Automatic annotation (TrEMBL):
<dbReference type="InterPro" id="IPR036271">
    <property type="entry name" value="Tet_transcr_reg_TetR-rel_C_sf"/>
</dbReference>
<dbReference type="InterPro" id="IPR049484">
    <property type="entry name" value="Rv0078-like_C"/>
</dbReference>
<dbReference type="InterPro" id="IPR001647">
    <property type="entry name" value="HTH_TetR"/>
</dbReference>
<feature type="DNA-binding region" description="H-T-H motif">
    <location>
        <begin position="34"/>
        <end position="53"/>
    </location>
</feature>
<feature type="domain" description="HTH tetR-type">
    <location>
        <begin position="11"/>
        <end position="71"/>
    </location>
</feature>
<dbReference type="Pfam" id="PF00440">
    <property type="entry name" value="TetR_N"/>
</dbReference>
<protein>
    <submittedName>
        <fullName>TetR/AcrR family transcriptional regulator</fullName>
    </submittedName>
</protein>
<dbReference type="GO" id="GO:0000976">
    <property type="term" value="F:transcription cis-regulatory region binding"/>
</dbReference>
<dbReference type="GO" id="GO:0003700">
    <property type="term" value="F:DNA-binding transcription factor activity"/>
</dbReference>
<keyword id="KW-0238">DNA-binding</keyword>
<dbReference type="InterPro" id="IPR009057">
    <property type="entry name" value="Homeodomain-like_sf"/>
</dbReference>
<dbReference type="InterPro" id="IPR050109">
    <property type="entry name" value="HTH-type_TetR-like_transc_reg"/>
</dbReference>
<dbReference type="Pfam" id="PF21351">
    <property type="entry name" value="TetR_C_41"/>
</dbReference>
Length: 198
């Protein structure tokens, strides 16, 4: 029983630090958020941060992982409502690109994440999205909707197009204008995979 309480307390501490950091990173950005910003609101010490995440960068990784997982789940839900695998695949990609307009996603995942954590295509959370896209492409190939090509190659190109479009939207001066261009180009690129282009 005592072991369970300790693990629950550790998980609660991690959750508090992630929530506090998420707020601070969204409001101030990673570089400007102080260690006190990250710990004081959670009522915890720097030691708790170091123990659970190693350093501020480790905490950013945990926040990005949480946000990225939420983004993937939202995109999946949108795709599931599209009616079929092809429309779902497009809807997921477009949803991901559109999330670049959300201030929290924009700052933490698309601006600070790459700046401080490196190439987003190498993040563990992106690998999960890639594998889901690959499975969808495999189904579409089996259904004769997508040309018979390497499913992983197609999935990597689709995910890369959506990710880079979102990065472009997040970093530009006129996000609404760029969003429309990015979504149109994403759709046209994706349609190139169709066995019988529309």
């Amino acid at each position: 029983m005592a072991g369970k309480k300790r693990s629950e307390m550790m998980e609660e501490t991690r959750a508090k630090l992630i929530a506090s950091a998420r707020k601070a990173f969204a409001e101030k950005g990673f570089a400007a958020a102080s260690m006190d910003d990250l710990t004081a609101e959670a009522g915890l010490t720097r030691g708790a941060l170091y123990h659970n995440f190693g350093d501020k960068r480790g905490l950013l990784q945990a926040v990005v992982d949480q946000l990225d997982a939420e983004m993937a789940a939202r995109a999946r839900d949108i795709g599931a409502k599209a009616g079929n695998d092809w429309d779902g695949l497009l809807a997921e990609g477009v949803a991901y690109i559109e999330m670049a307009l959300e201030p929290e996603v924009q700052r933490i995942v698309l601006l600070d994440g790459p700046a401080f954590l490196g190439d987003p295509s190498q993040w563990p959370s992106q690998n999960g999205c890639l594998q889901e896209t690959r499975r969808t492409v495999e189904r579409l190939i089996a259904q004769g909707i997508v040309r018979p090509l390497d499913p992983e190659a197609a999935a990597r190109l689709l995910n890369g197009a959506a990710l880079n479009a979102a990065l472009w939207v997040a970093a530009c001066d006129d996000p609404q204008d760029v969003l429309a261009k990015a979504v149109e180009a994403f759709r046209v690129l994706a349609e190139g995979l169709l066995a019988r282009p529309s």
